[in-house]
Structures are given as C-alpha cells and as structure tokens.
Amino acid sequence: MINNSFSICPLASGSKGNSLFVSCHNSSILIDAGLSGIEIERRLNILNVSPESLTAIIITHEHSDHVKGAGILSRRFKLPVYITEQTYEACSTLGKIEDLCFFQCGVSFEIDQILVSPFSISHDAKDPAGLTMEYNGHKIGIATDLGIVTSLVKEHLKNSHILYLESNHDLDMLINGSYPWHLKQRIKGRTGHLSNMDAGILVSELRTDALKHVILAHLSEENNCPQKAIQEVSKSLNGSNIALHVARPDEPGMLIKL
C-alpha cells in the first residue's frame, strides 16, 4: 500500500553526526548521512527500517558530520546521491559514487513524485542548502546549519506541516563557555549556527494552522541543552497545539507521521 503522507525521524543530530530519515510514497530518503554506514544501519534497524529499502541520499553540505557515511551507504545499497556540484567538489571523503545526481539551489526536482525544493542558506560551506519536501498536499521544511534567517529561508519554509529547524545554542552558555573566542564568533556569526532565541523567532513567524510538529535539531552538547531549547522555542508557540520535539545526537528520535 502506498503511503500518501510523510513519516520523518531524526537518526542523529548534533556536531558529531547528522542524518534525517524521511519516508513517503513508498520512498525512503536520508537527508545527510553524517555517521558511519554501520551506525546509520543500526539506527535504521531500531526503527524497523531495512537499509535495503532506502531510495536516495540528499546531501545538504560537505561538512563531515553530514557526509561521513554517505559514500559507503551509496555503494553498499546502490543509492543515488543528490548533491550540488560545488558541494561534491568539496567532499574529499565520498569516494566513487555510481549514481550522482546534481541539483542546484533554487531549482526543484522530484524523487518518486516527491517534490524536493532546495534553497540557499547562510553557512560556512561551499553551497549549503535547506530543503522542502512536498507530496499530496503535505510539506516538510528542513533548515539546519544556518547562521541567519533570510527572507528566502522564510519564504521556502512557510506553510510547512513539519519543521526541522536548527536550535544550536543558548547564547549565554556559548559566551560563558569554554570555547575559544574565535570559535564563539564563528558559531554566532552570519555563517554559523542559529541560537535558541533565533529559532523561536523563526517558529513564531512560520506558525500557521497547518503546522503540526516542530523538531529542534543540531543542539550543541556543550552550549545548549534540550530543556533550554524547548523553554525558549515554546514561547513562540503561544499555547497552540503544535508538538515540539528535540532531535538527539545519540539515538533516533520519535517517528512522526502526518
């Protein structure tokens, strides 16, 4: 039976590795694969998802915490890898990919009738992308690893039913923490990572009757904690029925279905 709505589950989220599982219309797609191939397979098995059932991998940018296992998974399960040309050229660890599918930010493409719309984000990578995925009137918005929220980001993410958003750091924890100053400046800069406060502001601007779930992602293990992220972003929900979740670095999250 064809699944006409989305299922989504973070396999891992954080500086040590990122991978998001999205399933719809009998397709199973990984957004990034920043763990070892064996570990991604293990986490899929926790969800009772066979790695052999995967359809494709989409890479958002070249940092190792997003691409570490992509090459081995592609070769092991004969998976196409969707990636921008600049990102591919910056990936030194992917190895040989038999089925390489280049996309461009701003140009939509389809994977098994799922409309994928990549858009440019502000991050210190060659050609970083956020994504929306649409099928049968449902929409998922995905934006992690972005230093600032541009009008372009908000335009693409609006009217999403599920938002997967970066909520990387609590600003006070970052400023008063042990990181060297240059790293603190990078993280809170325009090409760094989004704070809890900025994530909350974005959610408040994107809140509609259509929005059912918000998943906070890429939390820093040193400069944030789930309680602080939830406390800050909850302010933007204004008593609505939107469910708020936190993606973890060490285990898969809850499988969310529309």
What does this 3D model show about the protein?
This protein has 258 residues and is an alpha/beta fold. It is built from 9 helices and 14 strands. The protein has one domain: Ribonuclease Z/Hydroxyacylglutathione hydrolase-like (Metallo-beta-lactamase, Chain A, 4-Layer Sandwich), CATH 3.60.15. It has helices spanning 37-46, 64-67, 70-77, 85-90, 151-157, 171-176, 181-187, 196-206, 226-234; strands spanning 7-12, 19-24, 27-31, 56-58, 81-83, 100-102, 109-111, 114-120, 129-135, 138-143, 162-166, 213-217, 243-246, 256-257. The strands form 2 sheets. A 7-stranded mixed beta sheet has the order 6-5-4-3-2-1-14. A 7-stranded mixed beta sheet has the order 7-8-9-10-11-12-13. The radius of gyration is 17 Å and the shape is globular. The model has no long low-confidence stretch (mean pLDDT 96).
The assigned structural class equals alpha/beta
Strands, total number:
14
CATH class: Alpha Beta
Please, what is the CATH homologous superfamily? Ribonuclease Z/Hydroxyacylglutathione hydrolase-like
Shape: globular
Order of helices and strands: EEEHEHHEHEEEEEHEHHHEHEE
Span of the ends, CA to CA = 16 Å
Beta-sheet strand percentage? 25-35%
Share of helical residues: 25-40%
Architecture (CATH level 2) name: 4-Layer Sandwich
Radius of gyration: 17 Å
Strand count, sense and barrel status of the largest sheet are:
7 strands, mixed
Mean pLDDT: 96
Tally of helical runs: 9
Give the number of domains.
1
The low-confidence runs, each spanning 5 or more residues with pLDDT under 50, are none
